[in-house]
Amino acid sequence: MARQERWEELEDLIRTHDQNRASTATGTPLAELMLFGARADVVRAAEHALLHGRPAEDADFFSGIEAMEYLLEDYPDSYPMALVVAHMHIDVGWAWRGAASKEDIRELNREAFHAHFDRASDILSRYCPKQHHSPALSAARCALLPGEHQPLNTLCSEFESLIALDPLNPRHMRALGNYLLPRWYGDFDQLDLQARRIAAQTYDIWGAGAYAWVWFDALLVDPTGLEMLEIEYFIDGVTDALQRRGDQHSANLMAAQLYRSWQHARAQYGVDGLREDLPPALRQAFEMVVRKHLREIHPLIWGHAEIGFENTARVISKERLSAKGKDVALQAVAMPFMSGLQAGQTVYFTPEGITQVNP
Q: Could you report the average pLDDT of every consecutive run of 10 residues in the chain (359 residues)?
């Protein structure tokens, strides 16, 4: 639609999906996908031009950015179009910055990064997420946080606003926990406090589930957070989340997370007595999820759990990731039934439940 300049149709779709909180089975907002597609050509051109940290002499990706800017003049009161252009600037800013550490960024790249983020902030400043009842606008404000000098000052309030606008989607809670890791903008004390706050604010929807969702990605990316985790509360959160969202995507997410966390806890905390409660508690919770909730194996989820869902430092093809995930999942899921399998039983997973057949 963007290539055919069908902007009115695209604007209507983005707004409709956003207002309806429509998402894929994995929780990706459909409005987010539409926004990504609408800016993709311009962003890819910029990324190609900046492949070596600066545009090639004959690169003309600025014309694409300029064309996007004209959309703001053609649709001056459209927050969906503002989102398209703002996200374009955010993506181009990241293309300038790259993944290098702060010390390794050249001044030219740093200035371009902040210039694009500042422009995106100016565009979005005209639209209040609460007034427009728009999770997409709120999520865009969260995406601007890396451009601030002190992101922690507004991080929690921005994510609380986003979660309040779209409380049924756990992806926002997971993103908050990841950003509160020490490697980003927070620490484990703040992460745990915020997990409890979100759990209290969403208790009528998730029970204790938000506590588990906020910690979910953080524990996979940095398992040392297990030292701060209140394990009983976390397991209550897993149980409540799956009771309220019993689809197989969520069941695979929780099973893979618990299995990975159990492996780490067994290796790190089961020897010297530090947090000796963790390994058995995590294993019991994992086996509970497998027996009561798991009916399918989604290999990509298990593969991602092995490297941390939000850890983009390690790139691996989907085929290799899926194959690795399948091997891990089959080995893990067999664990609760090992004694029966060794005795010759056959275990069947069906939509109605697990069946164990004696030899």
A: 95 98 92 97 88 65 88 96 98 82 70 95 97 98 92 93 97 96 94 98 98 97 94 98 93 96 87 76 96 94 82 64 93 91 84 82
Report the C-alpha gap between 196 and 199 in whole angstroms.
5
Residues 328-332: contacts with CB under 8 Å, at least 24 apart: 328/256, 328/259, 328/302, 328/303, 329/252, 329/256, 329/297, 329/298, 329/299, 329/302, 330/297, 332/255, 332/256, 332/259, 332/286, 332/302
CA quadruple 265, 268, 269, 274: dihedral sign: negative
How far is it, in rounded angstroms, from Cα 229 to Cα 209?
A: 14
98: left (phi over 0), alpha (psi -120 to 50) or beta: left
| DSSP states along 220-262 | HH-GGGGGT--HHHHHHHHHHHHHH---HHHHHHHHHHHHHHH
